[in-house]
């Protein structure tokens, strides 16, 4: 998700990012990296924590990286994976809610969304 303006996201970018999150394993990997914070996890530790390993984990990381949700950086003999999804997830949330209730029969009704 390479758009830098948090209030401007196209339907195409949103669909692409949601598609990247459309796998339980990829969503699990992303959630694990979000929990780990900005220091990230080694690919081995990420595999242990999620139960996704080997070529399957490599495949999922590639899709998440292409969507701009995670990064992978070689540090010595390790590959460190980290979530960079914080702004992207906010963008997706804004995208979904920005026109909330715009076509509602009662435009003055207060719509609380948390």
Automatic annotation (TrEMBL):
CDD domains: HTH_ARSR
Gene Ontology MF annotations: DNA binding; DNA-binding transcription factor activity
InterPro entries: ArsR-like_HTH, HTH_ArsR_DNA-bd_dom, Metal_resp_trans_reg, WH-like_DNA-bd_sf, WH_DNA-bd_sf
Pfam families: HTH_20 (PF12840)
Lineage: superkingdom: Bacteria
Keywords, comma-separated and alphabetical: DNA-binding, Transcription, Transcription regulation
UniProt cross-references to SUPFAM superfamilies, sorted A to Z: Winged helix' DNA-binding domain
Every HTH arsR-type domain range: 6-103
PANTHER family per the UniProt record, alphabetical: ARSENICAL RESISTANCE OPERON REPRESSOR ARSR-RELATED (PTHR43132:SF2)
Record's protein name: ArsR family transcriptional regulator
């Amino acid at each position: 998700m390479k758009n830098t303006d948090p209030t401007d996201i196209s339907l195409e970018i949103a669909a692409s990012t949601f598609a990247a999150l459309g796998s339980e394993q990829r969503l699990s990997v992303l959630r694990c990296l979000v929990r780990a914070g900005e220091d990230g996890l080694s690919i081995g530790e990420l595999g242990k924590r999620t139960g996704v390993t080997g070529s399957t984990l490599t495949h999922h990381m590639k899709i998440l990286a292409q969507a701009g949700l995670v990064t992978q950086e070689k540090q010595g003999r390790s590959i460190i994976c980290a979530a960079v999804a914080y702004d992207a997830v906010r963008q997706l949330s804004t995208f979904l809610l920005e026109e909330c209730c715009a076509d509602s029969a009662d435009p003055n009704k207060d719509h609380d969304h948390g």
